[in-house]
Write a structure and sequence with these properties.
Elements lengths: L6 E3 L8 E7 L2 E7 L25 H14 L8 E8 L5 E3 L3 H6 L2 E8 L4 E8 L3 H16 L14 H4 L4 H17 L7
Antiparallel strand pairs: 1-2, 2-3, 4-5, 4-6, 6-7
Length: 192
């Protein structure tokens, strides 16, 4: 089963400092950023964020939406990130960006998030799996996010081949942001 292509709209809401709409695998998420609002010094946690997500299958889309909304608002970021999910079905096949149905039927589901420097920023897993399964899922997610195809020479390894052909998310993110910059500079009458 081929995954649905991702779509993003920047900005998506008119009366916010930044916004993004992100659609992927049957989910559409709208994120907005408003501010800056001056926080009192005692309440300020500049290096922390907290997101409580019940459905792990939504996490990559939520992360991508939040990043795109921040970029839309021109918030200075030290780096950007990409995230991907890998489902493992009852036969041990690993599936990139599973649909909602594939995620629900999976024996395990894994979400990985990487910085633009290649550092693992977040990992979340649910279900029953071995460390070997997790490590292979990590390699596949790295390929999806960073564009480096993994060495999966193990003859017993099964992967959904249609999703391996997916474009890497870093390049996709760069293209979306470049498109927004060009559109925002159109009023100047010159090309960037």
């Amino acid at each position: 089963m081929a995954h649905s292509p991702e779509e993003a709209a920047l900005p998506a809401v008119q009366h916010s400092d930044g916004s993004a709409a992100y659609s992927h695998n049957g989910y559409t998420i709208l994120g907005t950023v408003n501010g800056p609002i001056e926080a009192q010094r005692r309440d300020e946690l500049p290096e922390e964020a907290f997101v409580d997500v019940v459905d792990i299958a939504l996490l990559p889309s939520l992360l991508q939406t939040s990043l795109l909304a921040l970029l839309s608002s021109s918030v200075s970021l030290e780096s950007v990130f990409t995230s991907a999910s890998i489902a493992v079905d009852q036969y041990g096949a690993q599936i990139y960006d599973p649909s909602a149905q594939q995620a629900q039927n999976a024996t395990s589901l894994h979400v990985f998030c990487f910085t633009s420097l290649g550092d693992l920023l977040l990992t979340q897993s649910a279900g029953h799996f071995s460390i070997e399964t997790w490590e292979t899922a990590l390699k596949l997610a790295t390929a999806r996010c960073r564009g480096k195809h993994p060495d999966l020479s193990d003859p017993g390894h099964r992967t959904s081949m249609d999703s391996i052909e997916a474009p890497n998310l870093e390049d996709s993110l760069k293209a979306k942001v470049q498109k927004q910059v060009v559109e925002q500079q159109r009023w100047r009458g010159d090309q960037i």
